[in-house]
Amino acid sequence: MLPTLAVILLIVTSLSLLVTRDWRLSIIALAIQYIGVMILVSLQWPFGIAMIKLVAGWMAGAALGLTRIGQTEVVETETSWPSSQVFRLLAGALVLLVVYPTAPKVLDWLPGVSLEQIWGGLVLLGIGLVQLGMTAQPFRVVLGLLTCLAGFEILYAGVEVSLLVAGLLSGVNLGLATIGAYLLNSAIPEEQI
Amino acid sequence: MSAPVLWIFLPLAISVILWLLQSREHLTARLGSAAAFFLAFLAWVIPIGAIRLGPLAFRINPSFFILGRSLTLDNQDRPFLLLIFLLAGAWFLLSRMAGANRLFVPLGMGMVGFLVSALAVEPFLYAALFIEIAVLFSIPILAPPGRPVRQGLLRYLIFQTLGMPFILFTGWMLTGVEAGSSDLTQIVRASAMLGLGFAFLLAVFPFYTWIPLLAEEAHPYETGFLLSLLPTVILIFGLTFIDRYSWLRESENLYLGLRIIGTVMIVTGGIWGAFQQHLGRMFGYGVILETGFLLLAAGLPVVIGPQLFAMLLLSRAIGLGLWSLALSVLIQRVGSLQFEALRGCGWRLPWAASGLVLANFSIAGLPLLADFPLKQALVEAIGQHSGNLAFWIILGSLGMMAGGLRTLGVLIRSTETGPARIQITETRLQWAVLSLGIAVLIFIGIFPGAILPGMLRLIEAFEHLV
Predict the structure, then answer these.
(1) Distance between CA atoms of A116 and A4, rounded to whole angstroms?
(2) Which ipTM did the prediction report?
(3) For chain B, which residues lie within 8 Å of any Cβ of chain A, measuring from their own Cβ?
(4) What is the pLDDT of residue B423?
């Protein structure tokens, strides 16, 4: 029951990340997304180690959020609202349509991984990729990469339990968030920061 | 003390110190290059293991254990350490002259530390994680504060990050294959994952679109550093795969695939390079062409292929280094690398113009320049497998040469202000370094046997490839 709820949570949060242009909502969705990731990872890993994913994800979200708070409010305008939002939602729905029949086949590739983990992992990978393909803004790119990596981490947790890898992947997540925060500020000359 | 402490943790610690000193740019450049040269010197003279210096005896352990895994550098890795720290030292030393930003040396040193970790980590498949961390370190180098973030940089970040999961998954799949499974499906899946992972990491066709974009957007010296160091390490990482897994090593399809992909990169890089109007973009296509040649060398059978591969690494490093240095001098003096802005610049900046054109020609494989003996041998070896591939490779090289001729034409075009006269406006240091680079390119081209065979020690670590 809990894994299925986690998959639903991941679908809702990743679609929210794809559709919304409000950075606050995006950060909240990212934070909730990592709860789902932690639940699915904990199916294979000890709870304590699975918590690393949650903590690293929240820290990544906090780094991005704190950077945005410190910046002048720039409203991300939609050139063709609501059609662009509907388009992104449909693209996300298309990913879900592809993931649903594909997941059982991926189970052959990754024996030992549960179907819920594969659903969750593929949903995040797919929607993350769609997000990466639809934006040229550093903030959205980093959110897309974090989403993709979260999906990968769910799948990889099923096949590899290594403290070093868990630590390094958390380091990569935090590094990506730090780079995202840096890129959000990098266009501003240093004396103005 | 252990070797990883010396060649991984020490550079990382130096990187932190240089970061703290970043406002003193000349000092960081000198300290960074001195440290890199010192570490290269240590890699050259100090054997890993037991050492006796007169009455003193001490030991450098090859391994450092961390969270159940190890970082291991042994004597066979010393040629690689020597190469990477020598290159880094040279890039850091000239960074001020080239006008690189102040984050270049501190973060560049950090990148080197993580790239060495990538080749030291056991199991070696975790290297993808260290490469990703090195990529993250490179981002502020390419987009220093005050410079807007553009598409090329974001694509670079995306493609490099997407490559990592494929390599990690391959690692898991290969443990099954390595354990003796003869499951063909598993081998095909692992090969597909591996191919995609390296296609992203190495910017192989069609995932190389970020290279010309980045080369246009970022400072040429910073781009040159990244594009000469990162693919070198990734390619050596790739050779590790071929050396380690017999099913991969013995697969004729792998070699054929490498030859075809290498040729596609040479043809597209060379021909598209010929039509560029921006010298940064042309440099990007030159890098693509060079990666194509390296893939081609890796696609040749054992002995000749790996040998050419190792020697190409040096001529490539010198060619790309000189090219990006010349571009840096041009952008400092002219402010733009567009053809329109560079018209007639060769008369005012003759050393930069000569360095630029000769590096371009060397990468294209013009006779009497550093790359020629190796590329000629490569084309000859490829011709024995397929005459068609050899034809396309020559066509790609001719494309890059045409790009060089166009550049030369623009640089020496007479200006509207009157008859052109040579007037050296480069600084003394700039022309000294550029002329030295040109001399090295020509020297290696005329006497390839004097320096290039030294690179063969680099592949001694690959016991099945030598």
Answers:
(1) 6
(2) 0.93
(3) 66-69, 126, 129-130, 132-133, 136, 139-140, 143-149, 151, 153-154, 157-158, 161-162, 164-165, 168-169, 172, 189
(4) 85
